Amino acid sequence: MGFMSLLGVGQPPAAGGGAFTCDAVTFDGTNDYLTRGADLTGNADGRHGMCSFWIKADPANFTDGYAIVYIAVSDRMDILIFSDGTVYCYMQDSTGLSSLSTTTTLTIQTNSWSHVGIWWDTDYALNSKILEIYIDNTLDTNAPIDTGALAFDIDYTQTEHWVGAYTDATGKINGDFAEFYLNFATGLDLGVASNMEKFRTSGGKPVDLGSDGSRATGTAPIIYLHVGNGGATSDFVSNDGSGGGMTENGALAIAATSPSD
User: Do 4 and 96 meet the contact criterion of CB atoms below 8 Å apart?
Assistant: First the structure.
């Protein structure tokens, strides 16, 4: 029952500081989205993860009532934004019997850059599973819905991965998007200021994650979609993370503004 049915360890090096500039891409809400066409290289099921991205949109313009940020073809892992600006995240095991999900009460800003940070852990060694969503460094207080086993592996390994639309090409993002980071191996507690500041500065700007996104944890995430200052949309599509490049459907454009402006 995914959307359509409604802690990692170690001491990573600090993320880069100082002035960091990046560009963003525009998804037109009509025919722009990314597909993988296969599983992500090196992908494996697991119990930890985190996601960080920046978005500038008017959610009321999401024509299907929602916009997909990321989804796996089997609906085992979903991240999306509803037309009221709330953020939804869902994850499930390979049997479909165990899942963890939440929808925020907080909303992204309208037509201004918002940062969304999510981290999760489905390992009961923590005594409770964790799924936390932060919007502009504020933790949403909605308790996650937890079903099934005390601990479970999330079914990350899929034959297709999409960014920007649902797997039937509905739910397209209509807005600007930047610095999409998705890690299926490590989940840093984003309630710890130093961890959040690996992705979002205290002043509300993006942080330099390094050429392959590895600066946050010491290891490249499976997806890191990034355009450097003055870069091209093809840089975003190519995926600087470890999971391999995406396929562009439609034609992304470089956005007029960036979260680093």
Answer: no
Furthest-apart CA pair in the chain: how many Å?
48
| Per-10-residue mean pLDDT, the chain, length 261 | 45 50 98 97 98 98 97 96 98 97 98 98 85 98 94 97 96 98 98 98 98 98 98 98 98 98 97
- How far apart are alpha carbons 152 and 123 in whole angstroms? 7
Q: CA 67 to CA 149: how far, in whole Å?
A: 30
Cα distances (Å, whole numbers) of residue 62 to 43, 84, 122, 218, 261: 30, 9, 31, 36, 25
Rounded Cα gap, residues 154 and 32, in angstroms: 28
pLDDT of residue 19: 84
Place of tokens 């592996």: 153
Give the whole-angstrom CA distance, residue 107 versus residue 154. 26
Residue 74 phi, psi (nearest 5)? -85, 0
Of 259, 212, 216, 222, give the one whose Cα is nearest residue 77: 222
Would you state the pLDDT for residue 7? Answer: 31
pLDDT, position 13: 37
